Amino acid sequence: MISYLTAALLAVIGSAQLTTTRGPRHLVTFFFAMALSLTISAEPTVRIIGVEHVLVCRVVTNMMQVLAVHALMKLARSTRSPEPRTPWWPLVLCWAVMIVSCVDFASAYGVQEMIAFQWRPSVLLYQVALTGYPVGCLVVFVVSLSRDAARRPRGTFRAGLHVIVAAAVATIGWGLFSGLPSVTFAVTGFGVAEFLPVSRNIGLVAMTLWVAGAVLTAWDGAVRLVRTWLGIRAVTPLWKALVAAQPQIALPARHDLEFTLYRRLIEIRDGLLAVRAHVPPNLPDWLRSPVDGPTRAAAELAAALVMRDAGRTWEQQPARQAGEEPSVEAETAWLGAVSSAFTRSPVVREVRRRAPVVVTIRSAVRRASAAIVIDGLDVPSDGMLPQPTA
């Protein structure tokens, strides 16, 4: 059961990495390969497949473990710029040696006397292939990641990197203990019955460290993801109103939360600039009490949308001189507050109620003034006012 739970955690983390990671997905390969290896090697799985196929389960498990550490080595090398190319042929060669060796000693597995079997050349070759290549990959990974962790600022991400380094070291120990059982048996005096539980427990400790390190390194990213999603929700009402009024401000969509937030902030700013000429200059007279900045901005937008539909414009006021470039967080907080006021503030509702009345009154005044002027003149049949004569 512990193997299944650990495998499920690894699969969940791998799935999260798959949906959020752009570019090389070596860490995704590692988590899925290790989850599959733990699932296949679990005792219930072996019983379901059949005890007679236990050797096949063990070989497939070992192949997945080798694939996992190969992905780790590629991950460590991907931190360099430009990323050096990591060939696949050593991994394929390692798998081929394991399969050929297994075919040779499969007929003697469980039949030949234990001492003779563990020193069989094909068995030793299998163990060397299983241990040598992964340990080499892990050494490269540990060295690269330790250097990267030393350059990082203090925090959960750096702590996660240190835990992952410890997990890699534990995995090296696990590989040396479990990948060279002939040597382990000779040194410790263990039999198969004692060897398998110890090997499984060391592996679970290593996997637990991998999971803990992954959670710590992903914590900052998860927090940023939640913050971005909340920011998108906060500015969406304002964004919808402006895109409905100015469809041309909409940029091409992309399924990426951070890009979506950046895009909406830009579109909102473009929309606010586009309707600025429709803001009534006497809008402050409509506000019965002093209001805060976001509420005032929301009221200006509400009035501008009504005046835009009525075709009313005024000479644009000179733009305020820009100060420091605001951060994305500050811009999101400001526009989120404007969006909230735009949808909930009673001041904005009052502006929406008064704006059409003002438009109607002013239109009536203009029509009456025009009628008075025209009534005192001889208007030709074409409707054009007569030109003054010298």
Structure description:
The protein has 15 helices and no strands. The radius of gyration is 35 Å and the shape is rod-shaped. The termini are far apart. Helix content is 75%, strand content 0%. It has 390 residues and is mainly alpha-helical. The C terminus is likely disordered.
Helix/strand layout:
Elements: H1 2-20, H2 26-41, H3 43-49, H4 54-77, H5 89-105, H6 114-118, H7 121-151, H8 156-179, H9 181-188, H10 192-245, H11 257-274, H12 283-286, H13 293-309, H14 328-344, H15 346-375
Helix pairs in contact: 1-2, 1-10, 2-4, 4-5, 4-7, 5-7, 7-8, 8-10, 10-11, 10-14, 11-14, 13-14, 13-15, 14-15
Level of helix content?
over 70%
Average of pLDDT: 80
Number of helices: 15
Radius of gyration: 35 Å
- Provide the succession of SSEs: HHHHHHHHHHHHHHH
Structure class: mainly alpha
Instruction: Quote the distance from N terminus to C terminus.
Output: 106 Å
Number of strands: 0
Strand portion: under 5%
